[in-house]
Amino acid sequence: MLDLLAYDFMQRSLLAAAMVGGLCSVIGVFVVLRGLAFVGAGTSHAAFAGVALGYLMGWPPLLLAILFGLATVWITGWVEERGRMKLDVSIGILYTTTMALGILFIGLMKTYNAEVYGYLFGSVLSVTPEELRIIGALSVLVLSLLLLFAKELYFIAFDQEMAEASGVPARQMFFLLLTLVALTVVVSLKTVGAILVFAMILIPASTAYQLTHSLRTLTLYSALIGITTSVCGVLISAIWDIPSGPAIVLLATAMFFTAVLLSPKRLKRTGVVHTH
Amino acid sequence: MSPEGTRESVSTGHSPIICFDHASFGFPGLIALKDITLPIYDGEFVGVIGPNGSGKTTLCRAVLGLLPPVEGHLHIFDCACSELRCHHRARIGYLPQKGVVDRNFPVTVLETVMMGRYGALGLLKRPGKKDRQIAMEALTQVGMESHKDTALGHLSGGQQQRVFIARALAQQPKVLILDEPTTGLDIAMQHNVIELVQHLHDNLKLTVLLITHDINMIRSRVDRLVLLKTKLYAAGPPADVLKPEILHQVYGKELVITEKDLVIVEDYHHHH
């Protein structure tokens, strides 16, 4: 295993996995608490359609992924705000439409393009130095914004209407959160792939949710779980030569079920009700 | 504890803190509140009553500046509603209707109350020692200081309601708006929460807007009652508003007032 660590590509992919794991799991806390899980899924498929269009037309795929992702979350946010349609319906429609576009764009390509499939299923072991720099820059951007507006984002996740009523610019914060989700999805596309990125946003935060009642601890646990499962997933993937995306996600899922079984919240609920 | 005791009415010589002037709210074709003219004065305790769907919650949202009038004017702290900035909004404490908040959200009591400071603090500023102190004082006001590290989800409904009132107090508000704070609580706890609201009104000199269905519980405590059903049917001292001819217009003929001044629904079967 130590021999593996000596390779440049291995160092790059471990670094990419750690960054993506940390980023997804931290933003995942806000996504899970604000009830935006399905938005993450919709966005990743939209971003993939952007990648496919990029390869088809010879335009920068990551840029198009960002555009497609942002368009999806902003439409979703707008629809929720106007209360015109149930959120799951609007996302469901966008989700399948963008996936259809993605498949169409692939179909229109004259030749088989392995790189596109890398974005669909994730291929962290082929991360290039340039991609690593983009992942690093976007991670720093997203995490800094999360940190700067953490208290407002926590509040809107708890109760957006209440936050607005007590003088927090809640609408702007909601769109900021949606934007950060879209950027996170794009950052993670290459590592875990469009189909599985959603799991990296959802699972570490949901696992941590089982373990604590404090917001701060929840974020910390989620980040630790995200980084650990991503890095270990990549190592497993390299050692046993299996795809990295499924390795990371299945490892995270295993941790989730362990946490559910050992959850202090669950045990307390079935135990004696303590009086104060 | 003297719920039936008489309360001296507050002086209303100064200008109103909230002023509705022929204001209508809602959307074109779906007006929730129509042509409301109502001044609310500093330090008043106002009870808002009316049937379901009569626009009581709309009134709250309007005062919070979340819903500008489609017609007429609404002034809050001498600002037009549409110009109400976030820091003004922070001076109005709000307790929304129950059921809006996820009770299993991973948050402790103190963390919940600290959220009341966020609006006043503004963006990019971290809560400090002073904010913590204000939050702790608010918790003491509602008698929940010993639960500060308890998970919110572990508290009873009445205790949670107290914590949310503390969060509103942590804003150091001038106005406190409570939207049906007793819904879903047992009868002792209902009384308990209303007692607390009166205590806060008396001690902190807060202007209180209390929305409720329980006319009998608040009639002896409020300075004025406001009776809504899309339009403003009556506003004034409880004795002036709770008259059969006024209540019948809003609630129907089954409502009667007993000799002990209780507003009850007449038993249909009793008379047939």
- The percentage helix of chain B is 25-40%
Count of runs of 4 or more consecutive helical residues of chain A: 13
Structural class of chain A: mainly alpha
Main β-sheet description of chain A: none
Label the overall shape of chain B: globular
Question: What is the level 1 CATH name of chain A?
Answer: Mainly Alpha
What distance separates the N and C termini of chain B? 40 Å
Beta-strand percent range of chain A: under 5%
SSE string of chain A: HHHHHHHHHHHHH
What's the number of extended β-strand segments of chain A?
Answer: 0
Model regions low in confidence, pLDDT < 50 over at least 5 residues of chain A: 269-276
Share of β-strand residues of chain B: 25-35%
Radius of gyration of chain A: 19 Å
Q: Kindly report how far apart the N and C termini of chain A lie.
A: 52 Å
Description of the structure:
The complex is a heterodimer of chains A (276) and B (272). Chain A is mainly alpha-helical and 276 residues long. Chain A has a single domain, classed as ABC transporter involved in vitamin B12 uptake, BtuC, CATH 1.10.3470. Helices cover 83% and strands 0% of the residues of chain A. Chain A contains 13 helices and no strands. In chain A, helix 2 packs parallel to helix 7, helix 7 packs antiparallel against helix 9 and helix 11 packs across helix 12. The longest helix of chain A has 27 residues. Chain A is globular, with a radius of gyration of 19 Å. The termini of chain A are far apart. The C terminus of chain A is likely disordered. Chain B is an alpha/beta fold and 272 residues long. Helices cover 32% and strands 25% of the residues of chain B. Chain B contains nine helices and twelve strands. In chain B, the strands form three sheets. A six-stranded mixed sheet of chain B has the order 6-7-8-3-9-10, sandwiched between helices. A four-stranded antiparallel sheet of chain B has the order 2-1-4-5, with helices on one face. A two-stranded antiparallel ribbon of chain B has the order 11-12. The N terminus of chain B is likely disordered. At the A-B interface, helix 8 of A face helix 2, strand 6 and helix 3 of B.
